[in-house]
Amino acid sequence: xxxxxxxxxxxxxxxxxxxxxxxxxxxxxxxxxxxxxxxxxxxxxxxxxxxxxxxxxxxxxxxxxxxxxxxxxxxxxxxxxxxxxxxxxxxxxxxxxxxxxxxxxxxxxxxxxxxxxxxxxxxxxxxxxxxxxxxxxxxxxxxxxxxxxxxxxxxxxxxxxxxxxxxxxxxxxxxxxxxxxxxxxxxxxxxxxxxxxxxxxxxxxxxxxxxxxxxxxxxxxxxxxxxxxxxxxxxxxxxxxxxxxxxxxxxxxxxxxxxxxxxxxxxxxxxxxxxxxxxxxxxxxxxxxxxxxxxxxxxxxxxxxxxxxxxxxxxxxxxxxxxxxxxxxxxxxxxxxxxxxxxxxxxxxxxxxxxxxxxxxxxxxxxxxxxxxxxxxxxxxxxxxxxxxxxxxxxxxxxxxxxxxxxxxxxxxxxxxxxxxxxxxxxxxxxxxxxxxxxxxxxxxxxxxxxxxxxxxxxxxxxxxxxxxxxxxxxxxxxxxxxxxxxxxxxxxxxxxxxxxxxxxxxxxxxxxxxxxxxxxxxxxxxxxxxxxxxxxxxxxxxxxxxxxxxxxxxxxxxxxxxxxxxxxxx
Length: 571
Hints:
Elements: H1 11-21, H2 33-36, E1 49-50, H3 53-59, E2 68-71, E3 81-87, E4 91-97, H4 106-117, E5 127-133, E6 136-142, H5 149-154, H6 163-182, E7 196-198, E8 204-206, H7 217-222, H8 228-243, H9 252-256, H10 261-264, H11 275-289, H12 297-305, H13 315-318, H14 323-328, H15 333-336, H16 349-373, H17 381-408, H18 426-432, H19 436-445, H20 447-454, H21 459-462, H22 467-481, H23 485-499, H24 504-516, H25 520-533, H26 538-550, H27 554-570
Parallel strand pairs: 1-5
Antiparallel strand pairs: 2-3, 3-4, 4-6, 5-6, 7-8
Helix pairs in contact: 6-8, 6-12, 8-11, 18-19, 18-26, 19-24, 22-23, 23-24, 24-25, 24-26, 25-26, 26-27
């Protein structure tokens, strides 16, 4: 292994680095198999490494956008990007490319990275090494193949994460934070649902990247930053596991104000949770979000241990991940360290599982359709025999054809359904640019059409408004048109309370009015109601994308914009 931060490099090192600077990135990793033999790689033990930049450049295909796992990982104005990489004889890795100005001193960067690299716990993702080359600062960790908690909670297709699994994830994260705290690492940068990853067994692990954090020298001298910020962030994660909703951390205290656990509970759970446990968890959330409450990470672990109900069940069973899918996954670093070679075009587990589920669902629906179309009419035995023989032959041929296609046509990368960014609608483009005036014009023009198209045809929805309520609605619309947003908010609120129905245009216009008045939390609550009531209305998703962007949640905003565009293109 080579290094990038040597204080006294040898002549051989200098020669090698000069050669690297004048070469194009190699097609394969320069990590030699002879070097790997020095270590107990089979046992999963990997020495903390000072990587060559060229190795990481090659492993990530020259930092290809196709290999990006997440962006803006550090939050704010950070340009940090996490890539998936792969070494030919090592396996998949995660490479975080940091914003250079945050780490001007390579010695401090190396010191912090080595400190985090010394952590060894089953609930913390292993930091394998780092690289600093000129202004480049990179961190390298093992790759977690089964997505993030954010994706499981907010973007999972099909059934929602079960309550016992949510409780296990909460405990896993608390255990990770407690271990880090006991090791002297009480600070964590931007702790969120995106910081929680799932390994090959479906167990939750805390990303190690947030532990390597640039802090000012006076804070470094003091020993650590305020650990209560970690407790607060953990509370926001618990709240997201209760509600199943994307909630900006700054909005969490207001979200729980005057509410209870049952009222906020994720409706996708359909009542399948312990009310007592939910109340206990909600009380813990309340304590975490109160600055005056001094909770320690040990307190978190102790409270969450009492909420575990399926202690012996493996995580992949609790989360309804089949054993076959788990065995098919080979993208974990620990598994791949055993192998001497890894196919560079291997399909990641999460994409394979998604394809298997879609194929199985399609096959099941086809079988049900064929069964429903079979006529119960009687037929002579000879005709029935011939028909059955023909159907059996046809089914056999079809099965062979499908089997051959499944074998021959599995792509190296699963083609996910994606929106075409070049075909963004005017509303989508306005949300992307956060152009409130353009969105205002759109909502002015689309009121009647949207209400007729989206409202369910029930008696309650179409009951005529009273003359007084109609007048209030007209006053609200007039204020909205004239951009008198405080007045519009007051009148739209009266309309909403008078109808007891989520009228699309009323909530959409009030949401935008809140944004004009910089009341992002209230806008977020309106758009949550819109999505709950009308899950197929693209405008609601566009507005959610805008709200999340305003709340400095760029990753969530981008995913919501993608969903909105797909919904609109399908309609």
